[in-house]
Automatic annotation (TrEMBL):
InterPro entries: AAA+_ATPase, MoxR, P-loop_NTPase, RavA_ATPases. It comes from Pyrobaculum aerophilum (strain ATCC 51768 / DSM 7523 / JCM 9630 / CIP 104966 / NBRC 100827 / IM2). SMART domains: AAA. This is AAA+ ATPase domain-containing protein. Transmembrane segments: none annotated. The lineage of its organism: Archaea, Thermoproteota, Thermoprotei, Thermoproteales, Thermoproteaceae. Residues 35-175 form the AAA+ ATPase domain. It comes from the Archaea.
Length: 368
């Protein structure tokens, strides 16, 4: 299984090299694939949501289905048209070829704009991987359903559908100062997309999924002991349904697999770090995302949480013109920062946060 896990890691590395600042989107997508979970990307148009799913499909040699949904999209465009030849014989049958029914992955763009008929059909696909068609129960082969939207639904009738996408990432436009790097990365993606070669097959994905499930079941007590404490504390800030909470251990082990952690290397510290990272993908809206960032700042391992507090203190000292005290605190912060970077678990999982702290410390140093 380590060979299969390494293939997923390779897929992630390839994708990280092709997309600009898309680490969360890539990691969460692959985590969803390993758990056979539904995943939604929320953000404005033109942020490479479709290209990401297309690229994952190529790397995993997966057949994928795409449809931009509107109020005028017919159900036949999603689950397949009626077979006219059979209809003339008095039989009502559909042609499922090239529909969502026969795909490994499905990307439903602007999913919350669909008609009620499609939304009702999607609920059974997302929940049970079946459709009820003329009294027949048709199995849906789709492994992972990806959604894309530029809005979070506030309509009551759409909440059940939104909840069936438990893994979520908010995409955004690159900042103006990032334009040069964005253009270079985007052009490289356009150039290399057609030549992307598979690094693993869907059969291998399914084997890895089975292995992860068995690992979670066999190590349930130990995993739940460490994971549940963090989730329970998080629930004081963000609401997570019972359905989703039960699956968090599967998400965490899948996430750890995606970032290259072997089962033999999973210990309490790794589980804690993995859980903290996965919680970001369980937020409902941007208000929840702010709550997550505050939660993360106070629960990060090692000295990172202390450093966040020290940065706030140094800013306050500078604002109050207490320069000599601020310089001493900054020196202490740099010493603590070096210790944090030296911890392998902290450095591996929290590189983004470490870079943010480093940049802030350098900015504060320039003000003194």
């Amino acid at each position: 299984m380590e060979d299969l896990a390494q293939k997923v890691v390779n897929a992630r590395r390839i994708l990280d090299g092709l997309f600009f600042k898309f680490s969360d989107e890539i990691t969460a997508s692959l985590t969803a694939v390993l758990t056979r979970e539904n995943f939604i990307l929320i953000g404005p148009p033109g942020t490479a949501k479709t290209m990401l799913v297309a690229s994952i499909s190529k790397l995993l040699k997966a057949k994928w289905f795409y449809r931009l949904l509107t109020k005028f999209t017919e159900i036949e465009e999603v689950i397949g048209p009626i077979d006219v030849v059979e209809l003339l014989k008095g039989n009502v049958k559909r042609i499922y070829t090239n529909s969502i029914v026969e795909a490994d992955f499905a990307l439903l763009d602007e999913i919350f704009n669909a008609s009620s008929a499609i939304l009702n059909t999607m609920l059974t696909i997302l929940n049970e991987r079946v459709i009820y068609d003329g009294g027949n129960i048709i199995p849906v082969k789709t492994w992972t359903v990806f959604g894309a939207t530029n809005r979070i639904p506030d309509e009551e009738e759409l909440q059940a559908l939104y909840d069936r996408f438990p893994l979520r990432v908010f995409t955004k436009y690159a900042a103006p100062e990032e334009t040069e790097d964005l253009i270079k990365t985007g052009l490289r993606l356009r150039k290399e997309y057609e030549s992307l070669a598979p690094v693993m097959s869907m059969d291998e994905v399914k084997k890895l999924n089975e292995y992860i499930k068995n690992y979670v079941y066999e190590n349930m007590n130990s995993l739940v002991k460490h994971i549940s404490r963090i989730v329970a504390s998080y629930l004081d800030h963000v609401v997570i349904s019972n359905r989703t909470r039960v699956k968090v251990p599967l998400y965490v082990v899948s996430y750890l697999t995606v970032v290259g952690i072997k089962p033999s290397d999973i210990d309490a510290a790794v589980l804690r770090a993995g859980t903290l990272k996965v919680l970001k993908y369980l937020v409902k809206d941007k208000e929840d995302l702010s709550e997550y960032e505050s939660f993360l700042a106070t629960h990060m391992p090692g000295n990172l949480s202390v450093l966040y507090d020290m940065v706030k203190e140094i800013k306050a000292l500078i604002a109050n013109n207490a320069i000599s005290i601020a310089k001493e605190k900054l020196r202490e912060a740099y010493e603590l920062f070096e210790k944090s970077v030296a911890d392998p678990v902290t450095y591996r999982f929290f590189q983004v946060e470490i870079e943010e702290i480093k940049t802030t410390l350098e900015l504060l140093k320039s003000q003194l």
